[in-house]
Amino acid sequence: MTVEQASPEWLTPEVRDHLREVAYAYHVRVFGEEMARVNFLPRAQRKAYLHDMIDHARSKGVRFEKEALGVSR
Q: Which one, out of 1, 13, 58, 66, has a CA that is 20 to 30 A from the CA of 73?
């Protein structure tokens, strides 16, 4: 069974597009434009982007020995 067959009738492509726009607007408000864009990348690209950010931070002298403050587990 495909996703389209399992979807309710009201979930049309237009509704899906609208829901995606609402979700993107929420991500922009909460995380900012750059992270909202990153959050909507495919998983492999998102992970590569985050690894690049970490590598860039290390090249600028950021040390990761200490645990980040304010991060919940």
A: 58
Backbone angles phi, psi at 63, to 5 degrees: -105, 140
Residue range 2-14, pLDDT digits in tens: 555 688 899 999 9
Instruction: Give the pTM.
Output: 0.65
CB 36 within 8 A of CB 28: yes
* CB of 46 closer than 8 Å to CB of 38: yes
User: What is the token pair recorded at 30?
Assistant: 């909460």
Domain assignments of the chain as residue spans, ordered by start = 11-59
Question: Measured in whole angstroms, how far is the alpha carbon of residue 68 from the centre of its chain?
Answer: 20
